[in-house]
Amino acid sequence: MVTFLFLFWTLSSVFLTLNVFRPFANRKSSSFPAILISFALGWLVGDLLPQWILLNFGILLLFSFSDIFYQPLGWGGLVFHLSGWIILCLRLWVILNLPERLDQNMEEQLGNIWLKILPNNHPPDSILGVDWYSWLNPNNAVEEDPRIEIVREHVFHEEDGLLLRMDIYRPRNSKKKHPGLLQIHGGAWICGSKRQAALLMAHMAAQGWVCFSVGYRFSPDIVFPQHLIDVKRALQWIRNHADEYGVDPDFIVSTGGSAGGHLASLMALTPNRPEFQPGFEKAETSIQGCVPIYGVFNFSEPFNEKTPYPAKARVLKLVCGGTPDTQPDCYQQITPANWISKQTPPFLLIQGETDALIPVEETKTFWHALQSKNVPLSAFLRLPLVEHAFDIFPTLTAQCIVPTIERYLILLHENHINLPGGK
Fold first, then answer.
1. Which among 324, 241, 254 is positioned nearest to 293, based on CA atoms?
2. Among the listed residues 343, 335, 342, 339, the one whose alpha carbon sits nearest the alpha carbon of residue 372
3. Under a CB-based contact definition with an 8 Å cutoff, are residues 203 and 175 in contact?
């Protein structure tokens, strides 16, 4: 029995390690649960590596009380485990060297203006520079930051028993006219938490930004564009209460991950569109920049026989209330590329190359659409060996990538201030 359990655990560990580098679920044929499991396991093993190695070590320690390591199978299994740990540690080495690569990519795409912006938070340059406390205690690390104040579950819209809420991260000083950051959580438009991306919001609040993590209603209770309308209501509330919270109403950037990245993009691409502002058509809903992270941009290909993605198509049917054939107007509205214009604000697109849910080609296609309109101060970053949702917790991956996002946000604000009429 012990031999069987040891063999099972060893093969499982090998399987889980390989899944980090190449997700086992196939988008063209795998079910939605299978894709989610592949993503979750890849994220847990890859981004929570210290916890994974400790778990493995503990289990191997338990096996050591048996006679398994007196057998060739035991020593062979131990070699497999150690090899897996080494491979995963090599991935960490790639991640630790990622900031330098990102810096070079941003300089190539933005030019000397990128070099003029000095980072306030530096990514770890070695394993000794990692913020282990934040990695192992993500919630406490944010809540205990003395530089910021966090207001939880603040109601920004109430109608017929509906309560829409937001979390607010702000600096403790009373200086007026702080730049604003509108964070929209992911969750396939059907679930999610406002506490996603807390590391980015906490860091920006500590640097003088006011950050709003907004909630919105979920499908299947609603269909698009109701999700977008909810977020636009949040932006209306922010501008109406700008003086109270010390926000510069003329400079607010949207960001978000996955479905939140999609909604953040539409926030930037559809300012003051009356069809997305029922009852508040005259509200100013422009956005001054956008950072979609592993965002969703393609809504027609999942239904195409040549490029099938049945799991995604299943979700989109809930979100749009049907297929592109039965709801063509909805699919036209929900596709970000259809709204790109010469007035589109700057974008920073970020996408992991081993994302189990969103293929990098999807973001690349949207990037080409932005380039066709010469959208200024925009860039596209591809992240090697990075999974979906890498920024949910302050893992090593997040600690290495988020500083680049912070620096880009500061660049946009500096550019805004230096423009004629800027503040």
1. 254
2. 342
3. no
The gap from C-alpha 345 to its chain's centroid, in whole angstroms, comes to: 19
Instruction: Give strand pairing partners of 95.
Output: none
Is-catalytic flag, 378? no
Backbone angles phi, psi at 145, to 5 degrees: -70, 115
- Total Cβ atoms within 10 A of residue 241: 15
Residue type, 302: P
Alpha carbon distance 123, 134 (integer Å): 13
pLDDT, position 159: 84
Question: Quick one: pLDDT at residue 174?
Answer: 65
Of 254, 355, 378, 413, the active-site residue reads 355
Backbone phi, then psi, for 229, in 5-degree steps?
-60, -40
Task: Yes or no: say if 145 and 133 are a contact pair by the CB < 8 Å rule.
Answer: no
pLDDT at 138: 74
Phi, psi of 224 (to 5 degrees): -60, 140
Per-residue model confidence (pLDDT) at position 421 = 61
DSSP annotation of 303: G
Q: Parallel, antiparallel, or unpaired: how do β-strands 178-184 and 379-383 relate?
A: unpaired
Per-10-residue mean pLDDT of the chain, 423 residues long, equals: 85 92 89 91 87 86 85 85 88 93 97 91 88 80 86 94 95 85 97 94 95 97 98 98 95 98 98 97 98 97 90 96 97 98 97 96 98 97 95 91 97 91 58
Q: How many CB atoms lie within 10 A of CB 419?
A: 9
| Rounded Cα gap, residues 301 and 365, in angstroms | 12
Pick the closest to residue 181 from 88, 84, 247, 253 (CA basis): 253
Q: How far apart are CA 364 and CA 344, in angstroms?
A: 17
Please tell me the predicted confidence (pLDDT) of residue 74.
81
From the candidates 38, 258, 265, 378, which is the catalytic residue?
258
Q: What pLDDT score was predicted for residue 422?
A: 57
pLDDT at 17: 92
- Predicted structure pTM score: 0.94
* 355 belongs to the catalytic site: yes
Residue from 178, 388, 413, 416 carrying the catalytic annotation: 388
Residue 215 class from Cβ within 10 Å (0-12 exposed, 13-18 middle, 19+ buried)? buried
- Are 27 and 298 in contact, with CB atoms under 8 Å apart? no
